[in-house]
Amino acid sequence: MTRVEEQRPPRPVRVLAVLGVAAVGGAVGVGVSVAAYSAGLRPWRYPSLSPLVTVSYAVVGTLLAALAWRVVRRRARRPRAVLAWSVAAVAAVSFGADVLAAAEGRLLVGLLTAVQHALVIAATVAVLGWAMPVGPDDGERAVPPGWTARLREPVRVVLAVVLVAVAGIWVVVNKAVEGPTLLVLTPRHGLTVADLLSVAALVTAGHLLRTAVRARG
């Protein structure tokens, strides 16, 4: 057992920690919605401040982050770098939506959602870093081959192209099963739970292309 593994708390504690930060994030979301309502911002006019959106962002986002953190921690050769870029990407999309709201004249809306996003992201990263610590990237970490290693290079490329096409089609046709909105980008558009399937497909396609290029080199 490595030193990093020894630093991990017991599994029940890890599970409770993840559930706890998800619950706290949900409570923060409710608080933001209540504060917005008290300030005269009604959720039917500003959907990004509705309790369904603020709570979904915190709870669903935290649980998915925990799953992704666990996968990256176990499978990536440079988990710290992958996690750093992933957190930066989530923060950029979240705060980008807040800046867009403020730029469209909804300054208070942008400020309230930015506060929630900052608190949820910071708390989630802190708790996951404690519950599932990641060692330093040394570039020599042994990682067992994944399922893509069994695919030939042309198959990886074709599968990647298919996944990109499926991701684009799914965004268009998933309206009936889109689930709660996690992030409002504009008053009429947002990122839903169903859209995350398209995100996963694009990430998988990128991984397939990267491994295909590496195999060729």
Q: Helix- and strand-based class?
A: mainly alpha
Distance between the termini: 34 Å
User: What is the percentage of strand-forming residues?
Assistant: under 5%
Overall geometric form? globular
The residue-averaged pLDDT reads 86
Strand order of the largest sheet: 1-2
Gyration radius, rounded: 19 Å
Unreliable stretches (pLDDT < 50, length at least 5) are none
Q: Strand count, sense and closure of the main sheet?
A: 2 strands, antiparallel
Helix content: 55-70%
**Number of helices, counting only DSSP H or I runs of 4 residues or more:** 7
- The domain tally reads 2
In total, the number of strands is 2
SSE run: HHHHHHEEH
Describe this protein's structure:
This protein is mostly helical and 217 residues long. It has helices at residues 3-7, 11-38, 51-75, 79-103, 107-131, 153-173, 195-216; strands spanning 181-186, 189-192. The longest helix has 28 residues, at 11-38. Helix 2 (11-38) runs antiparallel to helix 3 (51-75) and helix 3 runs antiparallel to helix 4 (79-103). A two-stranded antiparallel sheet has the order 1-2. The protein folds into 2 domains: 1-137; 146-217. The radius of gyration is 19 Å and the shape is globular.
